[in-house]
Amino acid sequence: MLQSVTDLARLRPEASISTQIPEMVKALGVLSAIFTGLLLLMAIHKPALAQEAEDSPDPVYVSYVRQDLSDPARARRLLVRIDRAALKACGAMDGLSIPTQELIIRSDCHHETFNRTVAAFHSPALTHLAGAIDPWIGPTTQEP
């Protein structure tokens, strides 16, 4: 059961430098192929991130006071300010052609930004009023 150190040394194959070089070259080739593939994936992924950043609206701030959420007349004026801010966030500006302005007004960006902003106030009255005068679907209720 006991083996001497010299017996163990004889059982192990001797590794020479000449047999290790091809294995090292093969391993380096595999590693360089993996590294090159990762670089390509990173290069492809960067433009996609830039495109996503271009599609998101720029932040535009809307000021309000607490009475804007409770008084119906003030809430309507707040909705007008929210609508203008949503248009601005989606690219509307002075000097655009009328067809371009119309595209922005009817865009999903404008519609979604307006709705998300109204929802962010967490005011049922403001949400109801915005739904009642939603310009994309027309008036849904009769206002007194």
Verbal overview:
By secondary structure, the chain is mostly helical. Helices cover about 70% and strands about 0% of the residues. It has seven helices and no strands. Helix 4 packs across helix 6. It is elongated.
Output the structural class. mainly alpha
Total helical segments: 7
Strand content: under 5%
Low-pLDDT windows of residues: 137-144
Average pLDDT rating = 75
Count of DSSP strands: 0
Helix content range: 55-70%
C-alpha geometry: elongated
Radius of gyration from the CA trace? 33 Å
What is the helix/strand order? HHHHHHH
Q: What distance separates the N and C termini?
A: 103 Å
Main β sheet profile? none
Summarize, please.
With 144 residues, the protein is mainly alpha-helical.
Q: Secondary structure elements and their pairing?
A:
Layout: H1 5-11, H2 17-55, H3 67-70, H4 72-89, H5 98-105, H6 108-120, H7 124-132
Helix pairs in contact: 4-6, 4-7
Provide key terms for this protein.
mainly alpha; 0% strand; 68% helix; 7 helices; disordered C terminus; 144 residues; single chain
